[in-house]
Amino acid sequence: MEGDPTLQLRVFDLNCWAIRYLSKRRQERVQLIGDMLRREGFDLVLLQEVWSERDYSDLKVKLGGCYPFSHYFRSGVIGSGLCVFSRFPILDTLLYQYSLNGYPYMLQHGDWFCGKSVGLVVVKISGIIFNVYPLSPPASCQLHAEYCREKDAYLPHRLVQAWELAQFIRHTSKAADVVVLGGDLNMHPEDVGIRLLRGWTGLRDAFAEATRFEGCEDGCTLVPSNCFTVNSELLPFPLGIRIDYILYKAVSSFTVKCEELKTTTGTAPGMDIPFSDHEAVMATLHIRRQGQAAGDALGTAEPTLADVVTEARTEVGVGLRAARGQRYSAGRMAVLALLLLLLQAAAALGALAGLAAGQPFPKLSFSLLAFLALGVLLLATGLHLFHTMEVKMLQGTEEQMRMALRALQERP
Amino acid sequence: MEGDPTLQLRVFDLNCWAIRYLSKRRQERVQLIGDMLRREGFDLVLLQEVWSERDYSDLKVKLGGCYPFSHYFRSGVIGSGLCVFSRFPILDTLLYQYSLNGYPYMLQHGDWFCGKSVGLVVVKISGIIFNVYPLSPPASCQLHAEYCREKDAYLPHRLVQAWELAQFIRHTSKAADVVVLGGDLNMHPEDVGIRLLRGWTGLRDAFAEATRFEGCEDGCTLVPSNCFTVNSELLPFPLGIRIDYILYKAVSSFTVKCEELKTTTGTAPGMDIPFSDHEAVMATLHIRRQGQAAGDALGTAEPTLADVVTEARTEVGVGLRAARGQRYSAGRMAVLALLLLLLQAAAALGALAGLAAGQPFPKLSFSLLAFLALGVLLLATGLHLFHTMEVKMLQGTEEQMRMALRALQERP
Asked: Of B255, B282, B297, which marks where a domain is finished?
């Protein structure tokens, strides 16, 4: 920094869609990604959905020369899918798992099993401390289809995650000079979750701030022209949607500017397939030391921020009421199943004791009914416990948001 | 601070053992605790195992006058059991859940269901930022009985938790002036987990540092004379054990000293029962602003710290091998159950198709066997998934520890 007053940092971010056995032409694509990363020589590479540790090891071997430092975040049954490659030493890491993450019974979405989380990697470059946050995509839902956006049961979960993410960043980034976040946020730029995250942390959107832009129209990262995209999901958005972001801010006496933002477009050079079903986002950041400390400014003017927090809190409240309803239904179902079981037990005992005249029910249907009741009892109890946890987390977030609002209002 | 150069802070910490329906004379004791807290007027009160939100609400109402600020941390199915009462405004909160927490099938220990976690409460007193960390007790095991300490299957889990706790504190406390941690750490003062936590964060033990001490011999917080203690568990330790701690450190240009440490002894004043099955710990800290910054000094000399991390890493490695073995056994069991099911299905199909001469097995035992195989299959699959997660987390921690060791060795 002494000789050159400006540090240039090239950041790469991609949701790799590398799910073993499920993602199309996975191995080929991971190889293409590796080749491109080696060729381009970024400073920081944030990859998501690298679900197979084998793929990470292969990339690590291939990229060892130009990115000597790397980290793979492990969590959940399947893993977090997050990894980071860096040209500069990684000093420290931490992983934070969101407390709410979709529903275990929504098997088709699979969110609950993935240990969705946010990582933290501390990197020191030319004496500047960078806190780099790679994220796994938050609770999904077929976000892209309009019908779902109107009745989006996952919205409260995504808001809890956006809030926890913002809180985690605020609490861990206080000693950093620069914060960089990259990932698939699974939200449109104007969605309340993004506004909450940006407002509450003061992070800026590289796409909105970039001096130059090159890539898909409007910075979209999920585009219909990508051959792996399910086009029916993008019908309401003929241009595509922008859900992969690079966000940044300077914490202490530094300023950060995004000089250039790029997205990949179309197929990988010389190939017939793109790198992933998402487009990659590449930002060139210029970091400059400035005379006085910038302070921990919040991104949005505070009255606006209060509006955003209020909006988010209302949505979390809606989710809370829904979760309470589901907890009640599951509890009632469990009680009914238990009553049925007890009734059957009484009848069976009665029959055994010879109180009833003969066998009142055919044996087979009697035991089938008992098994059914037992199954329902177990399932309903599990659901009841799950929704109890959901209620607690939504309540906790709502309370934290209320506290934040009070603090915002009390500020002079 | 301007007029008075020293700030005195009185901190109270107690594991309340307030489990609904299970803890003896719970309501009475919670009331006693509330009365005592109101009478004594501490600055900060950290309570654990307040599992019923009702108990928290009652305390909040009772203590509203002298402790106008409070927070209850919600997590897991049952909750975190953590709450904080403060005479000074709480600016912000955060909760971090440990990634590993005992075994779901160890129902009698119940760890897995409690959402064991560490909270963070930011409090500002006279312009000094305090990061206060209340903890729920980490993965237990009948820690107190010697036979268990020798074959302690939970040790790797406790070490993962101690490591995550230390990492969480390091990453979130960088902008704080003073760090205070209070809780039941479920470890003896010389256990590797405590040495790891203290060494890696630089936290000091209020008992060891206190100028004056008053209370149970050796600062013990689980003592045989407490009528709620299960004495057979304390047999190898006739004096009791010290597992509840108040730890602290100054981060920036402050010094902290522990003037006085006390524990409760015997029954609550005028009553025939103590406050809990644990003794409370009460520390009086003196905080003084000093000329120059103290720096983020690590607590232990670095070669010693490297030894502690190496020791912890070895133990985590032992846990990793055990977890891999259990994952393998569970997987093999699942495959065997699946094979048995397939065999039965083939036999049943054969019988249906008339290939077999008559019915080879009695119907009832045949279906019972099928149900048994199905049950074993489900159970073994669940166990396999759980141990897969365990392996990932232990691996991740071992790798982080390796990285920390490298950093320690590379330091000039």
From this structure: B297
DSSP, residue by residue, B133-172? EEE---S-SSTTSHHHHHT-TTHHHHHHHHHHHHHHHHHH
Check whether B287 has a pLDDT greater than 50.
yes
Same domain? For A149 and A72 the reply is yes
Q: What is the ipTM of this complex?
A: 0.80
Would you say residue A328 lies in a domain? Answer: yes
B108 and B245 part of one domain: yes
DSSP class of residue A74? Answer: -
B143 lies in the same domain as B160? yes
Comparing CA positions, the residue from B171, B68, B180 lying closest to residue A172 is: B171
Which of the pair, B66 or A146, is modelled with greater confidence? B66
**Residue B116 sits in the same domain as residue B250:** yes
A278 belongs to the catalytic site: yes
pLDDT per residue over A133-147, tens digit each? 998 876 554 444 444
Residue A51 within any structural domain of the chain = yes
Q: Is residue B2 in some structural domain?
A: no
Same domain, B250 and B306: no
Does one domain contain both A68 and A92? yes
Q: What value does the mean pLDDT take over residues B203-232?
A: 89
Average pLDDT for runs of 10 along chain A of length 412: 73 90 87 93 94 91 94 78 93 84 56 70 93 80 47 80 92 92 90 93 94 91 86 81 94 90 87 90 93 51 83 94 94 94 87 65 78 90 88 89 87 66
Please classify residue A232 by burial: count the beta carbons closer than 10 Å to its beta carbon, then call 0-12 exposed, 13-18 middle and 19+ buried: exposed
Which residue has 């198709």 as its token pair? B353
Contacts of B76 in chain A (CB under 8 A): 389, 392
Out of A74, A115, A167, whose CB is closest to B395?
A: A74
Task: Name B137's Cβ contacts closer than 8 Å, sequence gap at least 6.
Answer: B15, B48, B49, B116, B183, B184, B185, B186
- The range of the structural domain enclosing residue B16 comes to 7-297
Contact (Cβ atoms closer than 8 angstroms) between residue A159 and residue A186: no
Other beta carbons within 10 angstroms of residue A61's beta carbon come to 10
Task: For residue A204, give the 3-state DSSP assignment.
Answer: strand
Question: pLDDT at residue B243 above 60?
Answer: yes
Dihedral Cα B137, B15, B172, A169, nearest 10 deg = 80
Give yes or no: residues A79 and A177 share one domain. Answer: yes
Angle between helix A192-201 and A302-352 (nearest 10): 120
Count of domains in chain B? 2
C-alpha–C-alpha distance, residues A1 and A7, integer Å: 7
**Maximum alpha-carbon separation in chain B:** 100
- By C-alpha distance, the chain B residue nearest A79 is B392
Q: Which residues of A touch B93 (CB under 8 A)?
A: 400, 403
Assess contact for B9 and B44: CB atoms under 8 A.
yes
Q: pLDDT (tens digit, 9 = 90+) per residue, B98-107?
A: 876 655 555 5
Does the predicted model carry a pTM greater than 0.90?
A: no
Report CB contact under 8 Å: A120, B171: yes
Q: Give the CATH number for residue B286.
A: 3.60.10.10
In a domain, B135, yes or no: yes
Q: Tell which of A74, A86, A388 to mutate to test the B interface (max B CBs under 10 Å).
A: A74
Q: Does A95 touch chain B (CB under 8 A)?
A: yes
Domain match, B121 and B15 both: yes
What's the pLDDT score for residue A295?
Answer: 47
Residues in chain B with CB shorter than 8 Å from the CB of A403 are 90, 92-93
